[in-house]
Records
---
Amino acid sequence: MTNAHVYAVIDSLNPALRCAMYITTSVTSCRRLLSHLKTQSSRLSPPCHFKSKQHFPRYRAFSNNMSDVDALTKLAHKLASEGPHKYEKTPRRVRGLLNGKYIFDTTSAYLVWEHSYFPHFYIPVASLSPTTTLTKTSPIQNANDTIHLGTLSTSSSSSSDPSNTRTPTVLILNIPTLPVPLLKIPPPALDQWFEEDSPLYTSHPKDPYKRITILPSSRSVKISLRSTVLASTSHPFFLHETSLPVRSYLPPTSVNWEYLRKSDTTTYCPYKGQAEYYHVQIGDEVWKDVVWYYRFPASESVEIKDLVCFYDEKVDVEVEGVEEGK
């Protein structure tokens, strides 16, 4: 069983078993546990063979509508005038799947910081597979013919729909501030991205210069809003994430749940996993999505599983009786 199969089977498990997989940090241990579960239960689905976009419903959301194209065009103008914030070559193997075919498979990808917050994968034009066609559709104005909008396509005998074999708009960059001609492919334009054998389920890879440290504490934390206490505990976990504010994660039993209302919002962080949200309602006033938690956190953040975090900038936070600055 390959690593890709391991992750595919993990993703097919029911929530309780999937949580156990997330907590298991060793792929070897995952394999052993999966082998045991496979002999004990018929609930496991067969290993995914990554043949088509149906296996990856989170992707292919990017389109050629004006807002998406406008966003790429705006980025192109920024890169043409200012260049990227920074970039570096990555030794990771990066692959992109389109309609059952890898249109690139490279260890020469670049991490490009379009801004200071996090990087994106940019793929060398030279890394495209021989069966992949890169088509320039239009040049970016005022970029001296160094940046074009374009599409990627690949032939497929299993699909009669041309849209399945062609990406939406991509950026083709041959600018002096980047070392080689590169492609900016919006992550949802492909069926799936892989870092080594791990599926990439977020809009960007992890920043190699960021880390998360989660520390239990006996310092008291109180969360309030408009003088109403929303939560209070002497057993918080403090999450330290490079260049971001410290976040306090609190036991669910420390929360006054009468003020929380379930939200439909979800977000995904490559370091922590998928977050679910609550609104806060006091009287007739509602503050949207100011509380979040992770039911199935990423392995590096398992300590915050099911703990509750408040958006510090929108509530009042006291640590050891001292109000934190907003």
---
Amino acid sequence: MGYNDALLSMMYTIGDQYRLIRDWEDVLDQLGEQEKDEDKEITEERKELLGLVEKAKKKIEKTDRFHSEVTQHWTILRERIIGKVVHVEPIAASTKPQQYTKDCAFIELYKDKFDWDTSKGNKVYIATSTHKTAFSKHLVSSKPTNIDVNGKKCLLVIKNGLATGTTIGRASGMESFTSVYTQRGHKKTSIELAVLHYGRRTGPFSAPGDSGSIVLTRDGGILGMITGGAGNTYGTDVTYLTPYWYIEEEIKKVFPDCHLYEVVE
């Protein structure tokens, strides 16, 4: 999502909330003022609607405040630069001895661009309430099970990418899938982790533009990073990952003291 798209998204969010408030207030007008001996269900409905209106107003205020901050301080491109690349691993397929794909970089974030006192650390943005609902249903329910849409056991994973946003998928759990690359006219085969889409109706797990996205397991652990995919239809969609443990191992060869930023609860 680009800068202008982000601004439009904020305005759409504000507009959506105003429309919801209008609809809820219409219902409140129909319910009228609370009466002494009114039906309990009407009282509860009024209370629920008032709560929704208040919540929507707070969301409008918060979004509008952020929109103002962005337009006042982030309009110029250089103000939106938050870091720099300090190391890039040469892209390579079938690297010895594991035969994984190597395609990653190390980025330094500028300290003055972040409020580290309020930073939430290494957390993945799940996005809209729809995605949050799906995430809760499939990954953090009261009795979570690694079951796909067909009722079969699998390793459920989640990611948020630039192209397809938040998606849930099924990981193979084994380093058994291969992907063929061409380097200087030579074909090479890399061993990678594979992730399939969750179900036919959910669409593909990833698409071009999602490369580099981190894929997480249901408990928040990093499974790997997207390096590519194969297939043109929902039925053959496969996303390839390089295991995270290998990526971290390669980075530590250059930056031995690096570590993941702590998650802030």
